[in-house]
Specification:
Elements (H helix, E strand, L loop, with lengths): L6 E7 L17 H20 L5 E6 L3 H10 L4 E4 L5 H14 L4 E5 L8 H11 L6 E5 L5 E6 L1
Parallel strand pairs: 1-2, 1-4, 2-3
Antiparallel strand pairs: 4-6, 5-6
Length: 152
């Protein structure tokens, strides 16, 4: 039987600031309404993630001092780190490097744009990653993006 992988769930998040989140929804929403919507989405994702007792949770936030303080307040006890890199690809690669350097053998990144993501999708991603080294899983979206990325 293969050795059990140490697994990490990485959550990429932003502070819910008017004019900085869900900007494609403005209009019809006001910047404040869009920020409130994002705050709810963030809360839903964090609540869902807290139910995974077999995963190490890691929150990656935009790199600014106020964000560190904000996330320390809403996610006490969850390892939190600033995102590093020029674009999303670099930021995800750096997050993966960090958790693998901590000894994790499998990691899955999710964002906060899919608060209704079924937890079974995350479990399935980790299940597929247990099949070997140098594996990747993608949760594709209809718009060409993805809601989940996992690697070993």
């Amino acid at each position: 039987m293969p050795e059990q992988l140490k697994k990490a769930l990485l959550i990429f998040a932003k502070r819910p600031l008017p004019g900085k989140v869900k900007t494609r929804l403005v209009p019809p929403l006001s910047p404040e309404e869009a920020a409130d919507l994002y705050r709810c989405m963030l809360g839903d994702v964090m609540a869902m993630a807290a139910n995974f007792h077999d995963l190490s949770l890691h929150l990656f936030y935009e790199d600014m001092e106020e964000a560190r303080e904000y996330f320390a307040g809403i996610a006490p006890g969850i390892a939190s780190f600033p995102q590093r890199g020029e674009d999303l690809g670099e930021r995800m690669a750096e997050a993966f490097r960090l958790v693998f350097a901590m000894g994790h053998g499998a990691a899955v990144i999710i964002g906060t744009d899919a608060p209704d993501l079924p937890p079974t999708y995350i479990k399935e991603a980790f299940s597929r990653l247990e099949n070997g080294k140098n594996m990747a899983v993608f949760g594709p979206c209809e718009d060409g993006g993805y809601y989940l990325l996992g690697i070993t």
